[in-house]
UniProtKB/TrEMBL annotation:
The gene is LOC107810288. GO terms for molecular function: hydrolase activity; metal ion binding; nuclease activity. This is Nuclease HARBI1. InterPro entries: DUF8040, HARBI1-like, HARBI1_dom. It comes from Nicotiana tabacum (Common tobacco). Its cofactor is a divalent metal cation.
Length: 269
């Protein structure tokens, strides 16, 4: 972040976010401390030592700046058009070692299950079981984007896989850039903040990212993440099958085939 970009951020946080200087701390120092924490993932104690402030003061001003950043939400974050699907946390008490497919399976089968709105579905990788609400790519067909760089899709299944991979790539790219810009999100250490504050930190990082893209874009950062995604050769695990899932699997097949056929017809037109 360049000095002019930093000064501009401080000004917008004062003007739009309601951030104010105090008797002992300027706006610039408050913002600098918050950005340092987000960008370096240091502890409150380390931040207090670096800025020569008390731990209580550092923590208080971090949350003050966090709230000011969140007030920029309407100005900087563009809401998606169309149907809004409320987010649900599948199971906040689980350890981070469980696979995504297992977490979703448990969320769908528990007493108060994850609800996927009728007619809507999630795009998921081949490690999940295909069902009406979870649409996986076709197995046995080309999938990774680099496989299509010189050879366009030859049939409906390949076209579906190409566009499926493109959607997943956009999501992975977003998280990849955020993790590189704000290491606090990518940290594997135990969080020092509660769940509510962790959610606010992610929102704040998204707002800051959009602000920076508008005034000081780091194209090298996007290129670095894109290169990592192109070279990603993770082997997908085979989903577990069961008689209980056969009906849902067939529904998922019908939905996927219908989408793939319509895509192919539009592609050929």
């Amino acid at each position: 972040m360049t000095p002019p970009t930093f000064i501009g951020l401080c000004e917008i946080l004062v003007r739009e976010g309601g951030l104010r200087p105090t008797l002992r701390t300027t706006v610039e120092e408050q913002v600098a401390k918050a950005l340092y924490l987000l960008a370096h993932n240091v502890t409150n104690r380390e931040l207090a030592f670096f800025f020569r402030r008390s731990g209580e003061s550092v923590s208080r001003y971090f949350h003050t700046v966090l709230r000011a950043i969140l007030r920029l939400y309407e100005k900087i974050i563009k809401q998606p058009d169309g149907f809004h699907v409320p987010s649900e946390i599948a199971s906040t008490g689980w350890e981070g070692t469980a696979s995504d497919s297992r977490i979703v399976k448990e969320a769908l089968n528990k007493q108060d299950p994850l609800r996927i709105p009728e007619g809507k579905y999630y795009i998921v990788d081949a490690g999940f079981m295909l069902r009406s609400g979870l649409i996986t790519p076709y197995r046995g067909e080309r999938y990774h984007l680099k496989e299509y760089s010189r050879n366009p899709p030859q049939n409906s299944r390949e076209l579906f896989n190409l566009r499926h991979a493109s959607l997943c790539n956009a999501i992975e790219r977003t998280f990849g850039v955020l993790k590189k810009r704000f290491p606090i999100i990518a940290s594997s250490t135990e969080p020092s903040y509660g769940v509510d504050t962790q959610k606010l930190i992610i929102f704040a990082c998204c707002i800051l990212h959009n602000y920076l893209r508008g005034v000081d874009p780091d194209d090298w950062l996007l290129a670095e993440v894109d290169a990592e995604l192109v070279n990603d050769t993770n082997v997908l695990e085979e989903p577990s099958n069961s008689k209980e899932s056969n009906e849902e699997f067939k529904k998922g097949e019908l939905i996927r085939d219908h989408i793939a056929t319509n895509m192919w017809l539009d592609y050929l037109a």
